[in-house]
Amino acid sequence: MGASPRLKFERKITEVEEQIDKLLAQSEDNDFDVAEQLRDLQKTLHSLRQSTYQNLTPMEQVQMARHHKRPYTLDYIHRIFEEWIELHGDRNFRDDEGLVGGWAKLSGSSVMVIGHQKGRDMKENLRRNFGMCHPEGYRKALRLMRLAEKFHRPVVTLIDTPGAYPGIGSEERGISEAIAFNLREMSNLRTPMLSIVIGEGGSGGALGIGVTDRILMLEHSVYSVISPEGCAAILWRDADYKTEAAKALKLTSKDLSDLGIADEVIPEPIGGAHSDWDTASENLKESIQRNLSELAETDIDDLLANRWAKYEAIGQWKEVPAQNDDNLHR
């Protein structure tokens, strides 16, 4: 994969890594023992990594979730599943490459895997539309979910999108209706369903494939109704308030777990999923297998009842005394 570009809060880690590289280079050139110095630096590096990544601010978590070296849906599919067969098109307009889906094998059993797909460079991002789906992407997803239901196979969705695409063509073809229709249909789909936020879970774009029996989140992923920048632009009329917005949105995996929205937080390797794709994939695979196994043991009618109860329980409200007519006219 090559070296990952560092984020601002990773600068101290970079400095220690550079010291280690310089020390190793000197030892090779001059043939002297640097074992003790190397041991001390590696100990410092390990401690620094732990303290840094365990104490990220909400906005730093957003930066981690958006890291362009982070594994995307297809990266996880090729590491976790076998016999991947991608299916295309919504049978109505076209194939939206911002969302991929198809059959795959997990421990010998067939599952339907669906997820947002971003690009690694500008050319691929234009083809994938930066992981932002058009209506046909969500209609393709629902077509595949119904196919899984027909054959009594579970559905796994991987969420990683800034949001649904808000362009003119997308609006003309009914993006809001496509997402709303998916929400209704997914809530009644008679097959086990599991969703995992692997990066950025943004607004209705994430919800369009996210109404499932269980919602899992990778440790450094985020899930919110709007981006911090968008929230800051609306509430403060200044995108520079994105740090305050990120904190107020409660969008981290810990926040979502504390609120009872995320059912499980999947640990990432120290340094984030982009630092070790294989370990991140192994952690994700173990969680998917365990959760699907538990869901498979539940009667389908109970599964649907639990699904409805899960989403009806999301949210908090506060009751206040009704105002009388005099107060209303003051």
Output the keywords.
330 residues; alpha/beta; 2-enoyl-CoA Hydratase, Chain A, domain 1; 2 domains; eight-stranded mixed sheet; 15 helices; globular
Explained architecture:
By secondary structure, the protein is of the alpha/beta class. Helix content is 48%, strand content 15%. The protein has helices at residues 11-30, 35-53, 58-65, 73-80, 122-128, 135-150, 168-172, 175-187, 203-207, 228-235, 242-249, 253-258, 277-296, 300-312, 325-328, and strands spanning 82-86, 99-106, 109-116, 155-161, 193-202, 214-218, 222-224, 264-266. Strands 1, 2, 3, 4, 5, 6, 7 and 8 form an eight-stranded mixed sheet that branches. Strand 5, helix 9 (203-207) and strand 6 (214-218) form a beta-alpha-beta unit.
Write the layout of secondary structure elements.
Layout: H1 11-30, H2 35-53, H3 58-65, H4 73-80, E1 82-86, E2 99-106, E3 109-116, H5 122-128, H6 135-150, E4 155-161, H7 168-172, H8 175-187, E5 193-202, H9 203-207, E6 214-218, E7 222-224, H10 228-235, H11 242-249, H12 253-258, E8 264-266, H13 277-296, H14 300-312, H15 325-328
Parallel strand pairs: 3-4, 4-5, 5-6, 5-7, 6-8
Antiparallel strand pairs: 1-2, 2-3
Helix pairs in contact: 1-2, 4-13, 6-8, 10-11
Shape annotation: globular
- CATH classification class of the largest domain: Alpha Beta
Determine the structural class based on helices, strands and strand pairing.
alpha/beta
* End-to-end C-alpha gap: 65 Å
Number of helices, counting only DSSP H or I runs of 4 residues or more: 15
